[in-house]
Amino acid sequence: MSMNPIDLRELYGKPSELVREAHAPFLDDTAERFIRACRFLLISSCNDEGFIDISPRGGEAGFVRIKDKRTIEFLDMPGNKKILTLTNVTKNNKVGLVFFVSGNRELMRAYGTAELISEKQDIVKWGGDIASNKVLVRVNLEKVFPHCGKAIGKADLWNSESWQSEASANVPGLLDMAKGMASARRDGSDK
Q1: C-alpha pair distances (Å), 110 with each of 3, 26, 34, 79, 121
Q2: 68 pairs with which residues across the strands?
Q3: 133: domain range?
Q4: Which residue(s) pair with 146 in the sheet?
Q5: What letters, b where the CB count within 10 A reaches 16 and e where it falls short, cover 51-71?
Q6: How do residues 118-150 score in pLDDT, each as one tens digit?
Q7: What is the total count of domains within the chain?
Q8: What is the CATH number of the domain that holds 149?
Q9: What is the model's pTM?
């Protein structure tokens, strides 16, 4: 059975007034403090096929900087050079963000429009290295809101005793996955 928004609301009920009102089109003091402590975030963008693409970004606390109450920035770090998120932003600048603070169950979410800044003086001013930091990502915020940490708690994400080693969990590493997927795609082994 296909569901519509009315069916879903009837199924789940209404959120409390505080939950409904807990958002702003700018950063308040609590949001600023959360972002300053953030060491990991997920950024979503939309690709040419209309699918949402999600990519991680990370660094020391403070790697996301607050330009003003409605604008945040972070340097793009070198990675696999696919530049999927950056390419998506050049075509559709709407992005979503989920901010994580290590050890904290709560999350903060935001969405807005992103722009890519490649001027060397801006990257250097920001503390970047021109050889490795090619782009500064600036996000003009439209909505910022806290998010319940139940999923973090259920996953026991921050409890290192709950982590499994790759060997004991038989979890493939990045290189194994890349080789396996490339080979399967070439062989057409999805059947």
Answers
A1: 26, 10, 12, 24, 28
A2: 71
A3: 12-157
A4: 108
A5: eeeebebeeeeebbbeeeebb
A6: 999 999 988 888 888 999 999 999 999 999 989
A7: 1
A8: 2.30.110.10
A9: 0.90
